[in-house]
Design a protein that fits this description.
The protein has one domain. About 0% of the residues lie in helices and about 30% in strands. The strands form three sheets. It has a five-stranded parallel β-sheet with strand order 1-4-7-10-12, with no helix packed on it. The chain is globular, with a radius of gyration of 14 Å.
Length: about 130
């Protein structure tokens, strides 16, 4: 299976967003969106062509569950997995990612030098 580059834009409030089993050359992100039910990012892999491939979900409002599981990024300075500043109506679940969820998590700084806040989940928060 060859890598493919996919761009998705969420321009209105979808009932759910599922980004699963993608192989991408570069980054994969969902940021600043409002998702009515679940946001699932699972089984994705980035950074095949050049070692650059962060995966992140940040500053989203998710009506039910946020699930970031079993994703693979190249690691190092340009390939991390980050889940930050999301407000989740039920559970926030992060597990099985490689590397583990790391960059832009509290108390680190984002690329602009701003402090990054935690995720807030109304039921169970298993994301740092």
């Amino acid at each position: 299976m060859s890598p493919r580059q996919v761009e998705c834009f969420l321009d209105r409030e979808p009932a759910a967003a599922r980004i699963t089993s993608l192989l991408t050359d570069f980054e994969l992100e969902v940021q600043g969106d409002s998702i009515g039910h679940d946001l699932v990012m699972s089984g994705n892999a980035t950074g095949f062509c050049c070692g650059f491939g962060p995966i992140w979900a940040g500053d989203n409002t998710v009506g039910h569950d946020l699930v970031v599981t079993d994703n693979t990024a190249p690691g190092g300075d340009f390939g991390w997995i980050s889940v930050f500043e999301n407000h989740v109506g039920h559970d926030a679940i992060c597990s099985g990612n490689s590397p583990t969820v790391s960059r832009n998590t509290q108390p680190e700084l984002d690329w602009f030098g701003r402090s990054v806040g935690p995720n807030v989940a109304d039921h169970n928060n298993r994301c740092p």
